[in-house]
Amino acid sequence: MNRRTVLRGMLATGAAVTIPLPLLEIMLNQSGTALAQPNTPVSPLYVTWFFGNGTLPGRWKPARTGSGSAWELSPQLQPLAEHKSHLTVISGLENKVVVSGSEHPTGSAGATTGAANNGNAVRAASIDQVVADVISAGAPYRSLEVGVTPATPGGPPDSLHTVSHKGPNSRNNPEFDPRAVFNRLFMGGTPAPNDDGADQAAKLANVRKSVLDSVLQDGASLQQRLGAADRQRVEQHLESIRAIERRLETTPGGGTPPACSNPTAPTAGKDSQSEAPPSVNTAMVELSALALACERTRVLSFMFSLPAAHVYYRHLAQDMNDDFHDTICHGDAGDQSSQPRVEKGVIYTMRCLNEFLTKLKSTPHGSSNLLDNTLVYVTSDTAWGKVHTKTEWPVLLAGKAGGRLRGDEHHNYPGDNLSKALLTVAQIMGSKATEIGLDAGRVTSPLAGIQV
Questions:
Q1: Of 151, 364, 175, the residue nearest 275 (C-alpha)
Q2: Pairing of strands 45-50, 299-303
Q3: Residue 371: in which H helix or E strand, if any?
Q4: Digit-coded pLDDT (tens) for 51-110
Q5: Cβ within 8 Å of residue 450, ≥6 positions away
Q6: Lowest mean pLDDT segment, chosen from 199-203, 342-346, 359-363
Q7: C-alpha distances out from residue 335 to 174, 320, 343, 387, Å
Q8: How many other C-beta atoms can be found within 10 angstroms of the C-beta atom of residue 51?
Q9: How crowded is residue 391: how many other Cβ atoms within 10 Å of its Cβ?
Q10: Which of 193, 270, 292, 391 has the CA that lies 20 to 30 A from 146?
């Protein structure tokens, strides 16, 4: 069976529905390493997972380097403990392009493009788009950009509003509304966020007839062609889509609430309180995993929060009802190891990342799972947010990129250029690039010892 096979249906409104399928055994060669039609290797997948406002470097960096039992997770990485075997922690790096007075915009640009800004514009393509040049051919979406909270960074530079850039003045804005992401993936069209097509897709999504109901006949025909393992995988896949659909129909926040006054299900709204709620993270995690599993895209940017985001983690504790950027990161007393409210925010962020990694690991893909086949590049827009330090920049690689990363390692490169992490990522994902970045961010060699 061809990898591009989809289930098709039609809603009562006349809207076309396509349900992409996960990577099934029937689509692979006998060893499970390549597609049967055509005989090409299964592509690794890529994610930029970004969070704003940095860390506490003294609580983020592991105490020891090495692999396996030679190193231990730091306190701020402890929420990821169940995935230690899939983590490659990279410490010691310095963002060489950070400009004083513009630390967040240039920090974000440096961590994703390797170059400082030119006014409000970035000067180079971001790492996700470099990777997309290599692995996105044939995928319905060259890249997909989603976010959990649109909490504003309060500034015009492009690098404050997204971490995905095709190049100067060509940014890919994240979609923060789970329902809009669902529509883009499964409603047949490809409307861009915030345009009239997306609005029309949202209206079509409110019909009573389920997306899945419309493809049952095509699904029944497909099941006759599959073996037992593939039948079970397709059933689980469709049920996971159904579960998301139900959740989006009942999640409060975007439409007029229920029931008797409005017989159509309300759409799930994006975070309107600037607080990155767990429910929105869960919805975006599930949608992102589906997009990758079905190869609707092979390249994803997951923006948990924007650079310098004025986010409020008030749902975490009574003492967290303050602007995380202005009041907590910049205003709270303490050093790089002792800002308790910053610690709470970073720990929550890592718990949300853990949910994403757990979903990838539990999602079958080819002969293993999504986490085994994905490289997740985790970073931020500053190191220590209180005074905008640029050394000990947070960099974490999660997943094994189809066997190109070993995992369960901590490497320390004191004072080395952050852009080397970007070149390392590019080469792991198959790029032939021998340099990346501009000016102080330009490098011509990757980090030694990372790639298998």
A1: 151
A2: parallel
A3: helix 370-373
A4: 999 999 999 999 999 999 999 999 999 999 999 999 999 999 999 999 999 999 999 999
A5: 88, 90, 397, 405, 411, 424, 428
A6: 199-203
A7: 33, 19, 11, 10
A8: 28
A9: 15
A10: 391
